[in-house]
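Hi V.,

You were right to ask for the full record rather than a summary. Here it is.
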Amino acid sequence: MIRASLRKQWPGFGLDVDFASEGPVLGVFGASGSGKTSLLHALAGWIEPDEASIKLRGRTLTHVPGGVRLPIEARRVAVVPQDPLLFPHRTVRANLAFAPGAGERLRSARGQRMVEWLHLGPLLERRTDSLSGGERQRVALGRAWLADPALVLLDEPAASLDASMAREVVALLLEAKQAWGIPMVLVTHRSTELMALADDCLLLEKGRIVAQGPPIEVLRQAKAHDTESWTGVDNLLALTVLEHQPKDGLTWLDLGAGERLAAPFVDLPPGQILQIAIRGEDLLLAQLAPGPTSARNHLRGQVTRLESIGGEVLVEVLVGTTRLQARITQGAARALELARDQAVHVLIKTTACTPLWV
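Predicted structure:
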């Protein structure tokens, strides 16, 4: 899909990367200031590298110095920044039709399917300054895809949204990946987004690539590098679907040995494997069985490992046949008098279990 080698030096920071990826979705992950957005802007042509060779599906976008540097409008690269940058005084329809040829594509059967799929039909005649954050982001996505791009660059598209809107945007991107087949480069600091969407992943640190590969392997590398943007998703689990309770919004997953996990409802048949992400800090530990709580998961386990990491303690607990990782403070570990082989109770809210459709 994309092959890029580029260098750019600014005062106090340099970007120096060399990679190739078949995608179709390449994730770019790293701490704030690691060069993620700079890389995206270089691919888009928004900044001019000191040295670069960038090819998209065999077509040269940039070869400098002394060679090709296609202008932005000739690259067929659409960018969806953190701020959608819509025209506030124009309607949704006018924003969607902004790119050359986009109006005709909007009127086509494919364009109408995209409008329906993005739930933009009722919004077409509204000005964009009257829209919610999630609606604005849907318009930005539609505008990008109606530009007929060879590649879509997404700069943390859900970063400014609340959790519910962020899940909606991720679900739309996943559907786009499956239904429309448009290659994407996704910059994110959220490991759940990376797991849900990316096929290949770059880990950036101080303007350099320190790891590349499948998202789950790169996330492990992020922890090994003590990357600041590692967001605590210590539990990346592949679990068997046992049964559903649609009225309660629950899907029950097998943790082994009779223990099971309540996750948000996912329409997968029993026996299928579902991948789940749970942040380590969303696991609560207790010495004694608690009374009624809002957490649907009251699990019994045994401490198998304790590891101090800075001001935190990583506690590995065996629940059924599944190992879960909890992150707690040093003070909490002392208060619970945690030790290896100790029996503990683990509480997890259903909403803390994020399904990953990969």
